[in-house]
Amino acid sequence: MTSPGTRTTDAALRTTRGVSEFFDGVFRRLDTWRAAMEAGASPDPAGLDALVYPLVEPELTGESPLLIGAGFIAAPDYVRGRRLHFSWWLGPLDSNPLFGTTRVPTRLDLSAREYVDYLNDFRTLEWYSVPESTHQRHVTGPYVDHLCTCDYILTLTMPVQVDGAMIGVVGADVSVKRTEAALLPLLESLDVPSALISRVGRVLVSTDPNLTVGSLVPPVPGSDPAEPGLPCPGTTFFLDLRK
């Protein structure tokens, strides 16, 4: 007979696999964009935007889109005549504090953002610095996006390389609300309260009423801070069973 502990462990492993599959689905889209960028990108800003927009527009305007923002962020000085170039669009928005209500994708206009100075050294930001140093895909967050949505989001990024040099990253923003809707059923299938937390202990999704999205889970005394739960392979998240 299977013990309750074994059933919990089996269900937990199914949950971690489900979380991995969710993020894999988004990264597969980014990988398609990466291949297109590596095949056709050029330092011309208009040509770059013309290449990126048709790639991301369908993912921002489909029925119940998962992505709320997407595009390509060029490496410093890659684009001719510009140190900073974001080929980035936001999907239709509802009563956004910065953009109001929109019905079509909106180009992110950095010149209109009064507090954009921190982007001048964007290579230090996690969504760029980790893919640059590891040459691997990465998930940043959850965090509050003060640049666009003023809401909790995740940013998924992947390096784009041409002739061995990184020319930028392709990326997508996913709202935590939409992520929660997709992943909460996986956690609800477990027979104990649980939470998905980032490597630093930030809550993404939870069935524990004491753990809210964005809150920090204190480390368990004596536990390995680098492994705060069951890992979800291919992501930066762990499943924390609240026993």
Short description:
This protein is α+β, with helices and mostly antiparallel strands. It contains 4 helices and 10 strands.
Outline the fold blueprint.
Blueprint: H1 4-40, H2 45-61, E1 67-74, E2 86-90, E3 106-107, H3 126-134, E4 138-144, E5 152-162, E6 165-175, H4 176-188, E7 194-198, E8 203-206, E9 230-231, E10 237-241
Antiparallel strand pairs: 1-2, 1-6, 2-3, 4-5, 5-6, 7-8, 7-10, 9-10
Question: How would you explain this protein's 3D organization?
Answer:
- This protein has two domains: 4-19 and 181-241, no CATH class; 41-177, PAS domain (Beta-Lactamase), CATH 3.30.450.
- Helix content is 31%, strand content 25%.
- Helix 1 (4-40) packs antiparallel against helix 2 and helix 1 runs antiparallel to helix 4.
- The chain is of the alpha+beta class and 243 residues long.
- It is globular, with a radius of gyration of 19 Å.
- It has helices at 4-40, 45-61, 126-134, 176-188; strands at residues 67-74, 86-90, 106-107, 138-144, 152-162, 165-175, 194-198, 203-206, 230-231, 237-241.
- The protein is built from four helices and ten strands.
- Residues 1-7 have low confidence and may be disordered.
- The chain has a six-stranded antiparallel beta sheet with strand order 3-2-1-6-5-4, sandwiched between helices. Strands 8-7-10-9 form a four-stranded antiparallel beta sheet.
